[in-house]
Amino acid sequence: MLSTDVIESTRLQALTFFKADPEHFDLIFVANATAAIKLVMACLSDHHRRATSWYSYHADSHTSLVGVRETAGGSYRCFTSDIEVDEWIHSRHPLKSQERNIQDLSTEAGVSLFAYPAQSNMNGRRLPLSWSGGIRSSNTPSRQTFTLLDAAAYVATAQLDLGDPDNAPDFTALSFYKTFGFPDLGALIVRKASGHVLSERRYFGGGTVDMVINATNNGPNTDAWHAKKSTSLHEMLEDGTPASHSILALNVALKAHQRLFGSMENVTKHTCHLITILHAKMSRLLHANGLQVCKIYEGSPSKYGTSRAQGPTIAFNVRNSRGEWIGKSDFERLAILNNIQLRTGGVCNPGGIAAALEMSPKEMRDNFDEGLRCGNELDEINGKPTGIVRVSLGAMSSMKDIENFLVFMQLFVDTTPEKPKLSRSLDSVGSTDTVESKAPVRVEGLTADSICPVAACMQSFKTRDMLWSHLSVHRLGKADTKSRSKTGGCFGMRIWRR
Q1: Mind telling me the catalytic residues?
Q2: What is the CA radius of gyration of the chain?
């Protein structure tokens, strides 16, 4: 069939895109990276019925990796730092067997899984890709640990290189739309030498078996039987009708990406350059009284300007001139009004958020009891923000995007020398005082007339709905226009000029 030929051709193109030799790797199409993780989880759960198991994951893991612990057949452990992982890998080598003092190693016998992200989806820090090879070299016949790499965030702007099968992850989960924008499709790339642990999955769906016999005799002597496909892993594990339209779209996307950008190495250089500029300028944003506008949460070890250690992502929160937090929900609302796309909240990275905001497990449970839920607008509890703002760049980002975002950030800069009287809670304010800034605002060649800082406007509205209705006046004007924004009652907002 023509569609089958195109699907197999696209499969090979996708493997080539990640420098994975089809002789050593297979690619299974799934809905997204989370579906790829769940597939590994389901297969290993069935394998674990016949073997003991141990699951471990890095603290920077996406929620989808953390959730695997609930199905671990034995026990699990969360490594809180890169150093802990390095020490664990070092201790597994036979020559170091007498030196082991790493917690929970006794539970590692049998078949185990270690999972971690290639790049933190919270702050963009890139983790060592060498761990997979180190773990494999320390395996023994009685103690096998496989590696699951979450490459979803990484592949958006970096070259995933699986050219060395001896040091590649056993299983790699990713989403193509993170790289290409479309289609909504993911993949699980499997190292064939490790594929046998996935072949013991008990469930079978349409397209994954060569023959099935329904049970005509029930009970212990049932004649129920089935024969799994055995030609390839993807035939065994791609259940149901293939996502033909999405796979055909991926075929086009792979060709278009190469035509537009040449290579992922070019994308990496481009985004690394842009994020380095943005990070430096955000770090230097100051209120008139000298307080920093942005609290940036950087991973350790990480360094902007070094693509091997840092992706094009910045996680931060914003403070007013009195050091009080600007709510992430209000920041996002204003960004949307100015056609700026970003993400706020816990960003599905519980370990990263806890470390960045210095929240203990008890504090997080207390916040839940206070009403904090995923996606709600409870932005601050006991003086601490409950989430972050995250900006990420991609292949299509430009210097103009950076400039526009920095101009937008000026809405949160107080250029008035004296400190305005601001309330901590938007829902409890009732004052009608306002503050107008007279000083011009400059950001590396960008100049703005006096503005009404967003923080000052927050003082004038009794409810969040009233504030949000008012925030629509804070749309940035075009640099070369003479007209004014429709300020509705906000006398301070002016048009931005170069």
Answers
A1: 348
A2: 26
